[in-house]
Model the fold of this input.
Amino acid sequence: NGLISSKPAIAYFAYTNRCAQAVKMRRILKITIIVLLFGSLKSIACSCPPETYSSLLKKEKTNSRDIFIGEIVSVKDLIDQNFVEYEIKINEVIKGDLKLTNIISVRISIYCPPELGESGRVIIFSNDKFEDTFIVNQCGLSVNMDRPEKNNRYRIPPPPSLESDNANSDNSEISEDDQVKFAREMLSKVLNDIKK
Done:
C-alpha cells in the first residue's frame, strides 16, 4: 500500500531514549562515586595516629627541616589548591637556616590543618619546602601559641577506656578551662624540649 510503518521508528525512538537515560544514570553514578571517594579521602587524610608525646616530639625534631617561631602577618585561602597560605614574620629560628625578620609563606592543607587562626604568634614545624613556600606537618605540633588548645595534639586525650580511633579526640567530660590549661602547659613543655 506504499506507506512505511511507524512501528520501527517508534521502537528506535524508545530505544534511544532508554539509552540516553542509561547514559545519564551512569554519569550520575560516576559523579556520586567520585564525591563519596573524595569525601572519604578527606576524612582519612585527617586521621592522625595516636602517638605519645615523646615519640611525636622526636619525630617532629628529626623530620622537620625548619622549626621556627613567628608572627602571622596575613592569611590567604587557596581553596582551589586545597591550602591556606600564611605570611609569617620569623622571630626565632630553632632549626634550619632561616634569617630572623624574614617574612615567609607557609602552606597548610585545608583538610587536616593545625589551627593557626588569623593572627598571633605561631610555632611551625616544616618538613618540606616547595619553591619559596614551606609546607607544615599535618599531624604535628605546629600551633598558634596564643590558642594552643585549638590543635588536637595539645588537648587532653581521653582516658584509655574511652579511646576511639583518634586518641586526640575531645572528651566532653573535660572542661574547656582544663583543656586550655593543659594545652598551655604542653606548649611550654614543647618549647623547652625542642631547644634541647
Notes: Confidence is low (pLDDT under 50) at residues 40-44, 161-171.
